[in-house]
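Handout, section 4.2: multi-component inputs.
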Amino acid sequence: MSALIEFFTPHLWPIVFSVIIVAVLPLLAGYVVLLERKVMADMQARLGPMRVGPHGLLQPIADAVKLLIKEDIIPENADQAVFWMAPVISVTAALLAFSALAIGPVFQIADLNIGLLFIVAVSSMGIFGIILGGWSSNSHYSLLGALRSTAQMISYETAAGLALVGGVLLAGSLSTREIVQAQYDAGVWFVFAAPLGFFLYLVASIAETNRAPFDLPEAESELVAGYMTEYSGFRWAIYFLAEYANMIVVASIASTLFLGGWARPFARTPIFNFLDFAPPLIFLVVAGYCFYRAPKQPERIQAMVMALFGGLCLLLAAAMALPFVFPASKAGIHGAFWFLAKVFLYVYSFMWIRFTFPRFRFDQLMKLGWYFMIPLSIVNVLALGVALVLKDTGWHPAAALLLTNAATLLVAVWLVANAQKKAAISGPVTSRAEG
Amino acid sequence: MLPAIDHYLFLSLALFTIGIIGVLTRRNVIIILMSIELILNAVNINLVAFSRHWASVDGQLFALFIITDAAAEAAVGLGIIIAFFKNRETVLADEMDLLKW
Amino acid sequence: MTPDQINQIAFYFFGSLAVLGAILTVTAKNIVHSAIYLITSLLATAGIFLTLQAQFLFGVQIVLYVGGIMVLFVFVIMLVNLDVSLRQIRFNRQKWVAGLLTLVLASQLGFALWFGKEAFNLAPGRTGELSAQNVQQFGRGLFERYVLPFEIASVLLLVALIGAVVMTKKRV
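Output:
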C-alpha cells in the first residue's frame, strides 16, 4: 500500500490537474457557447438568450440537460462501432491537447520537451473523428461534408504548423514553459517580433477549427450540418464540445507562442506594476455590478442567481488578491489570470471575425490555403531564419526582424496582387466548385 | 532498464511478417499498400530500438527518412490507384491484368 | 512498481496492441475498418517510440504517418468506395503458397535472432544520453551529418507531389 502511495506521489498534481480540466472544460465550453450567442446578439443589435437565468446565464445548463434527455437515433445502415467511436476520437484529441499546455507556471499537467509538437500531433488526430463520423453516417450530406472539412483541415494544418515553426524559431524550444520564458527574457511578445506569423496562425486556426468564414462544411444553408447531420442528442453535444474545446486549445497555443503566455503586459517594466492590481479589481467591479443589478431582477429566483454570481466573483477577487498576502503565489495565480485573459481575447476575436465576414466558397478556401497561406508561411520561416542569422552576425535584433518582416510583407502583397490579377483575367468563376 | 533489445527485434519481426502476408495474399490494392506501410513501420521500430541500444540518434534520423519516403510512396501509389479506378472501376489486383498475354 | 516494471508493461501493452492491430488490418473485411486498425497499430508504434525515448519521432509519427498518410488512405478509400467490395473474396489464389513462404522466411529470421541474441551484447548498449535534448540532437544530426539525405528527401517529396498531381489531373 505504501509502495502504491509512493508510486503515485510525484504524479499527484498532474492527476489533480487532469481531473480539473476534464471536469471544468465541458462547463467552460458551454459558457463559451453562451458567450458566442451573446456576442452575436450584441453585434446584431439584439439581446441574445435572456430567459433562462438572469441574462441567460443558466442557458448552457438548460442546453446540456436537453441534449442529454434526447432520443439517441442511429441511422439504419450506419456502421455502429465507427458511428459510436467517431465523436469520442474528436473529443479525446481536443482534451488530450490540454495536457501539454501551460495555463500558468504552476498549472500544467506535463512539461513535455516536445510540448508544441505533441499538441499539433494530437490536434491532427481530431481530423479522424470528423472523417469517420461523416463516413459512418451512411448519408450523402455527411460524407461530402466530412470530405470537404477534412480537405480544408489538412490544407490549413500545414500553414498553421509552419506559422508555429516561425514562433518556435524565435523561442528556441518546443517546450511551452521555455517558450514563455523566452518571451519573458526577450522582453517582447513574439507577436511584435513576428506579426505575420501571428496573422498566419490566426487565419489558419480559424480554418482549422471550421469556424466562419471557413465553415462551409458545416454551414446550415449548405450541407445541412455537414458531418454532424446524422448525430443527435448527446453524440452531437460531444462533437460540439470537441469543436469549442479545439477553439480554446488553438487560442491557448497562440497565447503561449505569440501573446506571451502567462506574463503580464510589460512584465519587466517597473512603471507598469500598477497592472498587478488589475486582476482583483476587475472581479470586484463585476461583483459590484452583479450585486447592484440583483435587486432589480423581475423575479426572486433570478435575483438569487445574480447574487450568487456576484458572490462567486467576490470569491475570485479574493483569490486574485491572495498574492498580495502570500507573495510566493503571485506567479501562479496572476499568471493563470493573464493567460486566460489572452485566451479570452483570442476567442473573442474569433467570434468577432465570425460575425463580420461572409463565408468563403470551397474552391476559394482551397485556393487561399494553397496559393497564399502555404507560400507565405514558408517565406515567413525563411525570413525569420535570416533574421536569426543576422542577429548572430551582430545586427540589432529589432533591426533584423524589422527588415525581414518588411520583406515578408512585400511577398504577401505580391501574392495578393498576383491572385487579384489572375482573377481579373479569368473573370468570375464559372466552373463548378470541385467537391 | 528497458526490455533487452531482442524483444524489440522480435516485435519488429512479427510486424514485418504480418505485413508481408498482407502484401502477398490480399486482393485489394489499397490493403496491399497498407501492408507496405506496416513493413516500413516494422523497420522503423528496429532502427529506433538500435538507436536506443547504442545511444545514438542516427537510427532515429534514418527512421525519419523512412517515414518521409513512406509518405511519398503512399501518395504516388494512391494516385495510381485513383487513376486506374477512373479507367477500369476496380481496385482488385487480380483484375489489373491489362498487360497479360 | 519500479520503473523497470513500468517499462516492461508499456512494452508488452504497446507491442501486443501493434501486433493485434496489424493482424486485424490484414484480415478485416471492410476496408475502412482495416484503415482504423492500421491507425491503431501506428499509434501503438508511436507509443513504443516514446518508451524508447525517441520523443521527436513519436510526434513526427503521429503528425506524418497517422495525421497525413492515413488521412490520405481514408480519403482514397472513400473515393473508390464500392459497395460490392464487402462481398468480394478477400484473399487471392496464392494464399497458401505465400503463407508457407512467409512462415519459412519468418522462422529463418526468428532462428537467427533467437540463437544470435548474445551477439548484441558483445557491444553492450551505452546508457542513454540526455533524452531531454532529443529534439536538439535531432536537429543537429539532421543539418550537420545528414544534410545531403535531407535535401534528397525534399527533392523526393517534390517529385512525388508533382507525380501525384500530374497523374490525377483532368486531361483536357
